[in-house]
Amino acid sequence: MCTHTPGEATTTMQPCPPRSAPYWLDLGDVAVVPLVELSRLPIEPEEFFPGSGQIPSATWCFDESWFDREASRLVFTIQAFLVVTENEVILVDGCVGSGKPRKRSHFDNLDPSWFTEFTNTGFTPEDVSTVVLSHLHVDHVGWTTQRTDHGWSPVFGNARHLVSQRELAYWSGDDGRAAMTRTGDYLADSVAPLAEHGLLDFAEDGRQIGRHVDLLDAPGHTPGNLCVRVTGSKAELLLAGDLLHHPLQLFDPDISTRYCVDPNQAAATRHDILTAVTARGMVLQTAHFAGISASRLNKEGSRYTLVPATDTIRTGQYHRP
Known about the structure:
Elements: E1 23-26, E2 31-43, H1 45-48, E3 67-68, E4 73-84, E5 89-92, H2 113-119, E6 130-132, H3 138-141, E7 145-148, E8 151-154, E9 160-164, H4 165-172, H5 174-179, H6 186-190, H7 192-196, E10 200-203, E11 208-209, E12 213-217, E13 226-231, E14 236-241, H8 248-251, H9 263-280, E15 283-286, E16 295-300, E17 303-308, E18 313-315
Parallel strand pairs: 5-6, 6-9, 9-10, 14-15
Antiparallel strand pairs: 1-2, 1-18, 2-4, 3-4, 4-5, 7-8, 11-12, 12-13, 13-14, 16-17
């Protein structure tokens, strides 16, 4: 059975989700560590990608890693990433979170096993210097806070939490509040407490976090969506967040999700960034591709295929130096 995080109120918990084998990415003088909350999240294709049934199911993007043929469901992962440099510990995104009421059953009142994924690295919350919120969707902000005797309190109390000003403005406005009727008001328990504790800063395109990390605007999925570029001595990697949700968007980069605020802009941004990633030979790591998916890209006409970045992938549990 899973255990509760110290200081967190007891609530009704779902069973621990299954875990994929641990691995991490070695960029030379920088490590990038996936922290998986849900390793296989099944989604009905038409929910996310209306019209995706027109893509032949024999294409590579419907490999068993990313598609459950028996259930006819796309397979997603929910994960965050720890970026470890010589003098920075940076968390990129915060997954769904523990013990939080959510309307999607897969997200409702999750247990705190993600926190064990984090502490297995040897780091403590006090070690994290920066938290980057790529955008303010429910599955990217949850572990910023946990319930304590004082309400929803920051988990990473020493960290500056970065978010685009456009992003916060959108979700705090009428359109954002209307969109949250689908999920519940996760800003109230996961973002507002950061502002109340003075931990929330605005980020912008090109912002540097130490020597190795900078932020890139990637609007469309949400107005202030960000990608995170990590430059190591041996490789350059893009934490692409929700630039893509599933490999079928490499098969057809024009496909945006039902949940993109501006689908056309999302597609244009995707084309631009994928072109740059391919030209630079960057490793691509998304938030939601299942399995060990860190890859470089090959472009074939208007489509892309994945080439596993085996030079960076290290199997086994990462431990702090």
